[in-house]
Hints:
By secondary structure, the chain is of the alpha+beta class. The chain has one domain (30-213): 2-Layer Sandwich (Muramoyl-pentapeptide Carboxypeptidase, domain 2), CATH 3.30.1380. 29% of the residues lie in helices and 14% in strands. It contains five helices and seven strands. The strands form two sheets. It has a five-stranded mixed beta sheet. The protein has a two-stranded antiparallel ribbon with strand order 1-3. A hairpin with a 2-residue loop joins strand 6 (201-204) and strand 7. The chain starts with a helix and ends in a 15-residue tail after the last strand.
Amino acid sequence: MRYSQAMRKSIFALLVAFIARAALAQEQPAAFVDAATVVPGLIADMRYAGSHNFVGQPIEGYEAPRCLLTQPAASALADVARDLEPRRLRLKVFDCYRPTRAVENFIRWARDRKAVAGKAEFFPDVDKRSLFRDGYIASHSGHSRGSTVDLTLVQPDGRELDMGTAFDFFSPKSWPADPSVGQEAVANRALLASAMRRRGFRPYEREWWHFTLRQEPFPETYFDFPVK
Length: 228
């Protein structure tokens, strides 16, 4: 059977994509660590490994509730935790490394108009079809590079500080600069952002909980190994 040039290019592109996917669908690389073994007092509430998330069920690729990060990101986060100890504050993480298959799970969910189990809690005022367009969910997530973390501040007993909204609340109220959430929440958001910036993390302008290590070791690599 003879193929046209366009078809050969298409087959080649598919083959390259398949090989790239196979290369990334690996066991946990040595460059990644369990942040709970590095960061003092870290609390891991890994939402996508369970059902308490905007999809309403465990997300593909999260086979265990572990916070995996690249070694530099975990070390920097440990410095943040130590900086906060004099304030008697701890860190609580909601998401860390995210397999690309999880992002694909989000995309499929977004296309399913009937899947709205989490709407009342996570996106009461937003049409789920606009979540990607408006930047609440990324089609290529920085989390998949292993140096991005979603987190908050908690008291010694684990109670979360008032941040104005919950994690993954898709609304302008979750933007770090939104003043409508009240002075206490604004101050707590600023405290978290300041602590993270001091140790080399940059914030995201639409999510008060989202930070990426500026000098991330894999700025162009999106991993797909499962969290086990």
